[in-house]
Amino acid sequence: MDIGLLETRRRLTQSALHGLEDMIEALFEHPVMIPGTGMAEIPVIGEPGYIVALDHSHFLPAICRAMVAKEKFRQQHPEWPDLPLRQKEIEAMKDGSCPRCNVVGYFADSLRGRELEPTAPRLR
Fold first, then answer.
1. How many domains does the structure of the chain reveal?
2. What are the CB-based long-range contacts (under 8 Å, 24+) for 101-107?
3. Strand, helix or coil at 53?
4. Which of 30, 38, 112, 122 satisfies CB 3.0 to 4.6 Å to 116 for a cystine?
5. Cα separation of 41 and 61, whole Å?
6. pLDDT on residue 115
7. Hey, how many other C-beta atoms are within 10 angstroms of the C-beta on 45?
């Protein structure tokens, strides 16, 4: 492969990653508070919540994985319902009367348990 093409691909990938990072950071600028908890919902994936005043950077990998999983599912299965990412949406699909929605809900639940849960921040 041409060195110029490889460099162009690398630069485009870096640019896209920086754009995604900026977009996710912007989601944290207007937190959605969870009533009665003093915590905010994690953008895109919802629960568990986070304390707004603390560092949220440890949630970014899970949010990215969730966004990639949703888009990948949409591209691979365009005729199916969108992949839900929030637990409430997942439960609604699992409990719905649409068989395809049930399957997508159970798949999302499995995926969330394996790959989309944010890791707890490490204490120093």
1. 1
2. 104/80, 107/83
3. coil
4. 112
5. 16
6. 67
7. 20
Both tokens assigned to 22: 């900026």
- Domain assignment of residue 123, yes or no: no
CB 56 within 8 A of CB 50: yes
Q: For residue 97, what pLDDT is reported?
A: 96
- Domain membership flag for residue 35: yes
Is the residue at 79 inside a domain? yes
Place of tokens 């912007």: 26
In the sheet that holds 33-34, the strands lie side by side as: 33-34, 39-42, 46-50
pTM above 0.90, yes or no: no
The pLDDT tens digits for 41-66 are 999 998 778 888 888 888 888 888 88
